[in-house]
Request: fold
Amino acid sequence: MFNTEADERDEARVNSHLEDATLKADFDWRLTDRHYLRFGGGVSRLHFLPEMSYLGSLQFKSRVRDSTAGAVSVVSLYAEDTWRVTRRLSVNAGLRLDAQFTEGKTYVCLQPRLSAAYMAGRGTMLKAAWARTQQPVHLLVNTSVGMNADLWVPATERVAPSRGDLWTAGVSCAWENGWEVSAEGYYRSMSRVARYRDGVRFVKDKDDSWQEHVDVGDGRAWGVDVMARKSAGRLTGWMAYSLSKSERRFAEVNGGSWFPFEYDRRHKANAVANYRFPERQGDRFLKGLTVTFTYASGNWISLGKQFYAPAPFPETGGLNPAFDGLEYIDRPNNVRMPACHHLDVAYTLDKRKRRGSSWVFAVYNVYARRNPSVIYHRQVGGMTVTRAWSLLPFVPSVTWVYTF
Reply:
């Protein structure tokens, strides 16, 4: 819900519903000392109510419902073999068969995958993998309300399931003192990805289908992840950093050129430290302290740089009171939101016996960083004002658990 000054009130609500019922069976079979087989299958049914929306102000109210409501059924079979080729080299090869049934259309896809791991030395492992995937749902990300809002929709006769190929390669080193360091690079190519067109809100002006408002194109993503972990001693924890890039391309958007994906976060960093206090005879609890720091580049959103007056609105005999104007967006995802970071602290009192109480005293966002959750434009006194909202600036909490 979005509220402005006392004499104005604008509301935008979006509800989405997804039910997933799955029945599956998995089997393990050690064929020989060198071959370990896994196989199985499953049946699932996904039922969607993609969007139920409300848009209103003091003068105007509208309720719409997406007409694309229904189910997608998926039947899958898979088999994979972990083959110990030599003492140092192991290979995993697998194949998955998916049949996806929508109204009026059936999609069948073979999804092979192959990975290998090589012990190059004591504690050092080299890894590489490739996998092809297909999924019966699409993620639509809408930034027209100033924040990234997600909507899951099914594959249909008009919009086929998305496909992707993922290549990875990495190295990890572990030492006897409890330290481990790893690095991995990846590249992912995607086809038949769907995206809401710019200027289209989840809240639409009539009962129609999301299929009327999407473009279908390609995607790609690549990056490097590095991590250092300490698992021995009173002080343990880990540090991780990711450098990544994710893009999309559609024939009818941005002149057919690549542009940033909404969730393209160039930098991500996490650090976690756990300290276990010395145990003393007679203590009722095991005491620990956890400190966590998180940093991430901001998401991309689409914000207009120029505005035009809206067209007359027949039902009210004038302008549409629910909209301040039309935004001119030079290209999709043209604004990156500010970086997000916060520091969290937790003090734990864990029971020493099988039964009893455990406590966690925690503070989320210790220094009350106002990370923007929503960025949007408003027309105030004939001027365009950009505003930002922040959620959860400082949240203390207490958790009590009693084990019988």
